[in-house]
Design a protein that fits this description.
single chain; alpha+beta
Length: about 110
């Protein structure tokens, strides 16, 4: 009975970790999309990525770190959003699992 309980809790923990990974990937995408499609600043893109994770996961992801970089390559402006955090340990694995994602988008650089 104990073995079955540990297996079930392990499956639950894997499920929550995969959910946290998917949310972090989506938040990186939302941040870069906001900067490119909506013309937001890097600070606003960072705030959107953080808010997406917080609203979707509550307390599941801790130590959240978001970094937004913008650079110009030729005539294109490239926005990269890095999001990382730790999925909280909920099951038999006693340590948090690190989850990271990166999203890159580009657009025509604004005319000077």
């Amino acid at each position: 009975m104990i073995v079955i309980m540990v297996l079930v809790l392990g499956v639950v923990e894997i499920t929550f970790t995969l959910y946290a990974r998917n949310v972090i990937m989506a938040s990186a995408h939302e941040g870069s999309r906001a900067a490119v499609e909506l013309g937001r600043t890097s600070g606003e893109a960072e705030a959107i990525a953080i808010e997406t994770v917080r609203r979707s996961t509550g307390n599941l992801v801790k130590d959240l770190d978001v970094e937004v970089t913008a650079r110009t390559i030729g005539s294109r402006e490239v926005i990269t959003v890095y999001v990382s955090g730790s999925a909280r340990a909920l099951g038999p694995v006693p340590f948090p699992i690190q989850v990271t994602a990166r999203s890159t988008s580009s657009r025509e650089a604004p005319a000077p």
